[in-house]
Design a protein that fits this description.
globular; Rossmann fold; AB_hydrolase_3; 8-stranded mixed β-sheet; 10 helices; GDXG_lipolytic_enzyme; hydrolase; 279 residues
Length: 279
């Protein structure tokens, strides 16, 4: 692809246009605030002493430890936060599932290698400390949108768990939404002004190019009206993973498809609940 074609394929903010993009971002905040209003949980826990980054725990119950959905927000590794990323927490709570939403240090303040380390540290925190907060460390499902889909992929692959003292199967299932699995194209679009990757580092940070290890069950979600690059990435990685389903959601774009995680009646919401209950 030419640089211009890559921009068309991956610049989903430009595709949406400023007005629609602003509406989507407003929905992230309002639906997240509504979802956690009065919900049992504990926000603002430091999960990584090295960076000081924090996570929120939502939707825990008073009885048995609950399975947990760890949601990694998008924003091309350089935007958004946990404060606007908990829109699924109430729906999951009503289904007996807890939600954990971590922050990670944004680019360019942090390298992508450091961002990956932090989200893996968040998974390690859930496994080691989650039981203290009503979470079941043996039923961890990870998901995320866009850049968060890439980070989800980086928790699915093998080769990192031993460094954190974790079992290889710590992530029992995964749901990347509009994910990026081969990030080498990012080196040629505007995002690289922030993440500052070369081809060698991009390859080393691409789930599609890394050892698979154990293949956990997965649902790969992408929107019908997504950026062409994101559609292609999911369509290529899902068969490579060989342990998951591809869901192309009609009448959704890159930014609103993930909001369906908060709707138990939507195909995406049902798929998430079924995936968590399967582990």
């Amino acid at each position: 692809m030419s640089d211009e074609e890559l921009d068309v394929a991956y610049n989903v903010r430009r595709k949406a246009g400023p007005e629609l993009f602003a509406r989507h971002m407003a929905r992230y905040r309002t639906e997240s605030e509504r979802a956690v209003d009065g919900l049992p949980g504990r926000p603002g826990i430091v999960y990584d002493e090295e960076s000081g980054e924090r996570l929120d725990v939502w939707g825990v119950g008073g009885g048995e430890p609950r399975p947990v959905f760890v949601y990694l927000h998008g924003g091309y590794w350089m935007a958004l936060s946990r404060d606007v990323s908990s829109f699924m927490a109430r729906m999951l709570h009503e289904q007996g599932i807890a939600t954990v939403v971590p922050d990670y240090t944004l680019a360019p303040k942090a390298t992508l290698e450091e961002i990956v380390r932090q989200v893996r540290a968040a998974v390690a925190w859930v496994h080691r400390r989650g039981g203290e907060h009503g979470l079941d460390p043996e039923r961890i499902v990870v998901g995320g949108s866009s850049a968060g889909g890439h980070l989800t992929g980086m928790t699915m692959v093998g080769g990192w768990q031993e460094r954190f003292g974790l079992p290889e199967d710590v992530v029992k299932a995964a749901m990347p939404v509009s994910g990026l699995f081969d990030i080498r194209p990012i080196t040629r679009i505007y995002v690289n002004e922030y993440v500052r990757l070369d081809l060698e580092r991009a390859a080393a940070l691409s789930p599609a190019l890394l050892p698979v290890g154990r293949r956990c069950p997965a649902v790969f979600v992408v929107a019908e009206n997504d950026g062409d690059g994101f559609l292609t990435q999911s369509r290529l990685f899902q068969p490579h993973w060989d342990a998951g389903d591809l869901m192309v959601v009609p009448d959704r774009d890159h930014f609103d498809v993930v909001l369906d995680l908060g709707d138990a009646e939507s195909a995406v919401g049902r798929a998430l609940v079924d995936l968590v209950r399967s582990v």
